[in-house]
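Board notes (copied after class):
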Amino acid sequence: MSNPVKNVAIVGAGGQVGKFVTEALLKTGKHTVTAITRADSTSKLPEGVQVAKVNYDDQSSLVKALSGHQALVITMGVMAPAEQQTKLIEAAAEANVPYVIPNEWGTAGTNEQLGKDTFLGPKAAGYRAHIEQLGKSAWIGICCGFWYEYSLAGGPERYGFDLKKREVIFFDDGTTRLNTSTWLQCGRAVAGLLTLDEKSLSQFKNNFVYISSFALNQREMFAALQKATGTKEGDWKVTSQPSGERYKSGIEMLQGGNRLGFARLLYTRVFFPSAEGNYEVTQGLNNDLLGLPKEDLDEATTRAVGMVDELGFH
């Protein structure tokens, strides 16, 4: 059977995960990829991508840009206006785009309690429901866990590591395992998904694809970091905090106006001893179907160390 997805539109083609998705799609040689961008955007786009300039205040410009595409991939930063994704979803329906991959990159969207506790679930579920209600497109959610290098390099509020200060805070005893994915793996996953034949692709209509690079706990990450930095445990300041206590402090930080509190509560909640971030145990993975490679933990960890200065994390 042939691949039903020839033309792919992507929002955020020059962004963090979007860049890798775009490059992976182009690498297959089976897709024409169009970046949906604002007229005044100065974002650097991967070579080989087509560009469609749009005005989010003019729905007809979105519909025109999406017409003729079989898939829309949405990757947007957390600061993007909430209505922007709604406009894209509605334009995709009007343009009869069969598949929409919404801006939902993370843990299992089927876990309602986890979604409520991280404040992400209800909004994400609302977008998925809206796609279904419009009745023209099917959504496919990408369950990839947290981004590995980004989260490792992103400071103590994420995976608990401050690479510049060489400090680590373990949540509980640091042994709760979760699934985590590199940006490279996320890009390959979307490309593999949209290259499937119709029968294989249709099984994911209004459903999730589960992918992962690694299943790790904080102590395993710490061992990989020591190897990547040429250090030993004694070179680091090591502390710990009960995950429930840390989660509550994240909520208090956020309520007090400190946006880092959101990162703290989000990551800590997924590290609860209930191990809900280890979705390969409960859901299984689609890595093999999508042709995803087994990645090298040392290489990914070394990339994370290099990202600290590159992305300005501290």
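Comment from the instructor: The mean pLDDT is 94. The first helix runs from residue 16 to 28.
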